[in-house]
Design goal:
The complex is a heterodimer. The two termini of chain A are 20 Å apart. Chain A is globular. Chain A has a single domain (7-131), classed as Rossmann fold, CATH 3.40.50. By secondary structure, chain A is of the alpha/beta class. Helices cover 40% and strands 15% of the residues of chain A. Chain A is built from five helices and four strands. In chain A, helix 2 (20-29) crosses helix 5 (115-131). Chain B is of the alpha/beta class. Chain B has two domains: 3-107 and 151-307, no CATH class; 108-150. In chain B, 33% of the residues lie in helices and 14% in strands. Chain B is built from twelve helices and eight strands. Chain B has helices at residues 3-17, 77-88, 110-117, 147-150, 153-156, 180-183, 185-191, 195-206, 214-217, 243-256, 266-270, 277-292, and strands spanning 23-29, 36-41, 71-75, 97-101, 124-130, 133-138, 141-146, 168-169. In chain B, the strands form two sheets. In chain B, strands 2-1-3-4-8 form a five-stranded mixed β-sheet. Chain B has a three-stranded antiparallel β-sheet with strand order 5-6-7. In chain B, strand 1 (23-29) and strand 2 (36-41) form a beta hairpin. Chain B is globular, with a radius of gyration of 20 Å. Chain B starts with a helix and ends in a 27-residue tail after the last helix. The chains are: A alpha/beta, B alpha/beta.
Chain lengths: 149, 319
């Protein structure tokens, strides 16, 4: 099938409003080129991310999830990104044990001045996700409607 | 009656008589052979109903939130860890509980005994523990088995058979029968599979789930007053027991109790359709230990795992 060459992964990005979201903005204003595979949700802090949101995104049909926040020490609320780090580390390992490919959950620290880094991160993740098959984790062959549509 | 059991009854009676506790949470004989059931009582005479035997499966700490006043609670090693974990999470106040520590040489898994003897539990006359052996009497004939072949899987990896946190300790026990390899044999099997096979395995398991939430109800770590599965605005998962929603429920639950789960194995025992939940909780316990060198319920003064951080840790997966 020609699906592999045509497959464009859909990525959901949870970006912290203080750093990564501004970083993504900067990537745009400085005309950095990055794949259009990411859909962005602005969140108050990376510490807002409950594992449930990540799993929900995968169930909804996203091929990958990116959680991005401020660099350690730079959190607007002092400790949010440290807490996010613990949570995501555990979630990632546990999802792997359940059988979710590790590429599907990604994390990055992108500051408001790192437009270039944001573009790189999105390119890398898109490339990683193209190496694995589209997300069919929650698709049931008995369902008439596909979860991805 | 064992010596420890008599000690427990005397202790419970004295505690209630002197008014040092308002109620006792312990075990009494169950209505079926080789079972026990929780006993929560304020009646002094009920002290005579208390039992200690190799079938005390329940983790009684789950009841601590439901009783008022000062509670005396019978605790095995794993239960005492759950209690400590609840103290860390400020769900119970240490001064409001009186922990009666009992030594636990492991809880016997009747399913394993049934498999070994080929008999139904009703046909067995007696089951007794003796050191690293288990003696089963069937029709007047004594059969001897290795203890590690009849104990619950979670007991085989137990590091703390004797409670670390207690007000009174009834007895000490010798070295524990441990077989960590055997205890995590299913995890090993799963780890050797490809991700697709693992997902297919869990998909198959969770398609049996009827979402009775028994796993959640028996779990001392699941103390949220309102669980995300019952929220309707937004509705996170459908109330219908489809495998996708069943899996999301359990997956999220396991992540939510990370750092609180003490691998007591109650979720798996409560499951009416025998989903191997302990493989999930045990793996989660391992992950928490690998990443943060943290063991749930071992230090009542430590902050809970998810309420703290170190400035440098678990950084390798972040771009």
């Amino acid at each position: 099938m020609s699906q592999e060459s045509e497959y464009e992964p859909k990525i959901l990005g949870f970006l912290c409003r203080w750093c990564s979201y501004a970083g993504a903005d900067l990537a745009g204003t400085s005309r950095k080129k990055y794949p259009a595979n990411i859909r962005i949700i602005k969140i108050p802090c990376s510490g807002r991310i409950d594992p449930l949101l990540i799993i929900k995104a995968l169930q909804t049909g996203f091929d990958g999830v990116l959680v991005s926040g401020c660099h350690p020490g730079d959190c607007h609320y002092q400790t949010g990104n440290y807490r996010a780090r613990r949570r995501i580390a555990i979630t990632k390992k546990f999802l792997e044990f359940m059988g979710v490919e590790p590429q599907r959950l990604q994390a990055s620290w992108v500051s408001a001045s790192e437009g270039g880094k944001f573009a790189e991160v999105v390119s890398e993740i898109t490339r990683d996700l193209k190496e694995i098959s589209p997300n069919r984790l929650f698709v049931d062959e008995r369902d008439r409607t596909k979860a991805t549509e | 009656m064992s010596e420890t059991e008599q000690k427990l009854r005397n202790e419970a009676r004295a505690l209630l008589e002197q008014g040092r506790v308002d109620c006792i949470i312990g075990y009494e004989a169950g209505s079926l052979k080789f079972t026990t059931t929780p006993l929560i009582t304020a009646d002094i005479e009920d002290a005579e109903r208390l039992v200690i035997n190799p079938f005390i499966t329940n983790n009684l700490s789950v009841f601590l939130g439901d009783v008022t006043g000062k509670a005396g609670i019978v605790a095995k090693g794993c239960d005492s860890r759950s209690i400590v974990s609840l103290i860390q999470d400020q769900q119970v106040v240490r001064e409001n509980i009186f922990i009666i520590g009992i030594p636990c040489a492991g809880v016997i898994d009747l399913n394993k005994i049934e498999k070994l003897t080929g008999k139904d539990r009703d046909e067995l006359d007696d089951i007794a523990r003796q050191g690293d052996r288990a003696l089963v009497t069937v029709g007047g004939v004594k059969k001897e088995f290795q203890a590690k072949d009849v104990l619950m899987d979670d007991c085989l990896s137990c590091d703390m058979p004797t409670p670390q946190e207690y007000d009174i300790l009834l007895d000490e026990i010798g070295p524990m029968v441990c077989d960590k390899e055997l205890s995590r044999s299913q995890i090993k099997e799963l780890e050797d599979m490809t991700p697709e096979q693992r997902w297919a395995f869990w998909k198959n398991e969770f398609s049996r789930c009827i979402r009775c939430y028994a796993c959640r109800q028996v779990c001392p770590a699941c103390f949220c007053e309102r669980c995300f599965v019952e929220e309707s605005e937004p509705q996170w998962i459908s109330p219908l027991p489809r495998w996708q929603d069943n899996l999301i429920f359990q997956l999220t639950r396991m992540i939510h109790v990370a750092g609180r789960c003490t691998d007591c194995g109650e979720c798996q025992r409560a499951c009416p359709v025998n989903i191997p939940l302990r493989s999930l909780s045990k793996r989660m316990e391992e992950i928490v230990d690998e990443l943060f060198n943290y063991k749930a319920g071992t230090d009542k003064d430590a902050p809970p795992l998810m309420a703290t951080y170190k400035s440098e840790e678990a950084e390798d997966f972040i771009r």
